[in-house]
User: Fold these one by one.
Assistant:
Number 1:
Amino acid sequence: MFQSLRRACSKYPVTAAYIAFAIGLFLAVQIYRIDHGISNAGSFDDALWKLGAVQPLVFVHDHPLVEEKEYPTGGPFDLWSGEWWRILISGFHHGDVLHLLMNCLAIGFLGRLIEPVMKHWIYAAFLILATYVSFLPEYFLEHYPVGLSGGAFAMFGLLMMLRRIHPEIAEVFTDREVNWGLGWLILCFVLTHFGILNIANAAHLSGFVYGILAGAVIINRSRFAGTLRFLFVLSQVLIIPGTYLVCHPVWNGKYYWYLARHETDPNQKIVYLQKGMELSPGEPKIGAELALSLFRTEGVPFHSWEIMLRSLERNRSYDKGIEITRLIWKQFNSEQQKQKALGIVTEVFGDESDAWLERFKLDQSAVASADVSLPKSDQSGNEFLFLKETERRGAPQPRDLTAPPVDPRSPQSAVEGVTL
């Protein structure tokens, strides 16, 4: 067995190295988990993150980019800080043994057909580029997968082209294999659609298309073949702006929240948070931080009061937002200011206003003289934003609200039904 394995590695060194790197990373992840006593992987896998994969960080401990023990929202912060190389490394990581085994078997079968008919350096460049390119669409969709299946589908697409000019490939890679591959590509979409498996279909499809295009250029024998090959090689430059956009997702509200968290200019921080709230109105903690930032700069915090109310209108189970709202209310000192603030409540909540005032513990009978008892606040007010989930205070829920049923204990429930 070992003799056969050695001969295969010697005969197909590029394919063997491609598979070996994935296996080596998988073993390194398992060793890390054992060494750190990690029994199972959650939505955030510390082992994959420490070993180079892109992970959508939510609660970050011991992260070089932050000081707080808990981040109030999530995102691929390492990627946003410029660590673009994690995109490629993520491709070589795998979720479990079955995931790794299926990809390695597919790559081994496809690679032994491709490698003999291509120069080693061209084939190696194709594998690396295909792995990288196949992941970019996933990041545009805010998905953060792992695995070499995008590269495998690129090899599959390439072989569909190569079999046309290489009879020795066509003898092994027959119509049956083509139908099996296309069937699996379609089946993955079906399994994902019905929630059976969460599969990186964008990576599969983009890898497949990349392989088809590469193969079409390679087998071209027309008088324009040289020009087409030059243009295809030149098109790889598009990876650079694609990577830049993935690392600077200006369409993502949480990215502007991330920029605000690292901005020292208070005015620019507010600009970032306003843009973030505009793009991601369903993210309650962006609105909360914007309200707190404005709260520190306003003499009478009417603007921060309205922002917090509108954030709560969209995210009705955000209990930390209730605490921040009561903090802001405490700054209205005169009867006139309180009446104006109540007018904003009516404007935002309409017929639901009384129920919300009850939830704020500011019902109409006590609203004029309410003295809200809150923990002592530092100048930033950040302790309200970073309250741990176990520290929530109970508060009556508003009556007769029109929002669909939500879990009142969940800080992520939103009126538009978006889970963040």
Note: Residues 53 and 90 are 4 Å apart (CA to CA).
Number 2:
Amino acid sequence: MVSAGNTSHYRHYIAEGFRWYKSKNLWMLQGWILLYLLGNFANGFDGALVNGLQPDKEWQTYFNHPVGSTLGLLGAIQNIGSLGSIPVAPIWNDYFGRRKTVMLGGAMMLTGAALQASAKNVNWFIGGRCLLGFGGGFNNNADPLMVIELCFPSHRAPIAGSYNSIVNIGSVVAAAATFGTYYMSGQWSWRLPLLIQVIPTSIQWCLIMFGPESPRWLMGKGKEQEALRVLAKYHGNGDEHDPLVLYEFEEIKNAIIAEREQKRYGWIHLFNSPGMRRRSFTMMALAVCGQWSGNSMVSYYLNQVLTTVGLTDKPSQLGINVGLSIWNFLCGFIAGFNADKFGRRPIFLTSIVGMLITFICVTICSAQYVEAHSVVAGKLTVLFIFLFTGFYAIGWASVLLLYVTEIVPFSLRSKAHSLFAITQASMQVFNQYVNPIAFLAIGWKYYIVFDCFIVIIGVFVYFCIPETKGHTLEETALMFDGEDAVAQLQKQAEEQASRA
């Protein structure tokens, strides 16, 4: 599939010499978008908690040294809770709007985090994590959609491409928190990081309703004047007659009118046309690819991997966890921020080639350490784990979420994102539950499974993933329907904007 329509067509409507940082309203917009990025920060913090708490002797003693299926459940229960919210979250999101969805999800996340921090036993702890995951499902449905629907057009790819990398900032803070509290005596060594977890969600929850709603959602609800005011204030410095604002407004309106005529609203419409079937298959396949690339082995069970190669010192494991999170953030952020410069497809392919080479090296070095007791091989394993996670972050912690949200029309975007999320969460649950069991049974040989799957991922991306850079959100959403659909939308918006 080729890129459809004229790429970067919207840039013709941006005044020559325009510099966004000279606009006070665009600075305000970046602040509101930052609130939605905090949602992914919270995800990263929680995702790193189980990994960071495992070396803590107080946590291990309090919960009777969980191993095997119990440890797998502790890692997977958040995603199990998230699975429960997926059928409900897009309905709430489409009916009540992005902001109120974040408010509801945040309230449940704060309650779940409080239960988790006050846990008296392992079942209490699991229950708190389950509720936290359920609320997180609402936030995860609304946060990325708000980012891509609210951003200034030329900022959408860099900011949304960097969205997933914010997970790693949360991971860094969680890893640093668990590293610092490791030396504390008593239960506060593990309860304090759980309390710190509520800070980003609390900030988001308190401020979100003071910010703007998605102009796409407002337009979809027939509130055209409100949508125009939001676009004008944040994309046109308050001028409702700004050429870019008029072009965006007309393009959004035309796209939504076309979707209404096709009556594409229900879950079944994700599969009722060739274009939507291709979108849905692409999103589901990418969700599976991201979870079966080997990263789950080093992101949730890093301490077990390090133990396999002889690094059993707990402070060293925690220190490596912090360094790994920082490295992942840098790789993911740089790749995502340059999504429009390099293109989504080249970033994906670079990531996959690097992942394959480095994970094969992890497999070989782990085998050499276990079979030949080579200390050098053990140290090299840690090096290649760092390199592997960096390559993973380049593709799957950067442009993945941008890609799967931008290829779907507005009327089905929330449900399509849930389809992606339910596929992703299902794979995460499977990985988090099965990985410790399989790893305990066959050790380093389990890595070979992921080596083979990375090859399959590469073949899929090379032949099935088209490039999408250089378009507005509405244009990108039509690309799977063909080049003519995008060109027609551009022409309609241009003609109507010129008459306004």
Note: The chain has two domains: 20-211+263-469, 216-262+484-500.
Number 3:
Amino acid sequence: MGNLSKENIELQLHMERMQNQLYKLVEQKGSFLAPEVIELSQEIDSLVITMQRMLIKYTNI
């Protein structure tokens, strides 16, 4: 479980950095519909799904 915790923390930190980047990008572009904003948002969504799958996998052991 130790590795899961470390990996989970690293993923959470990475997600927080991406979210901050998303906030700045929205401010810069002035729209949630800018292609770059949508792309980054989708990357964050994918990371969230990865994290959820990891947690499900390791809690069902």
Note: The chain has a mean pLDDT of 89.
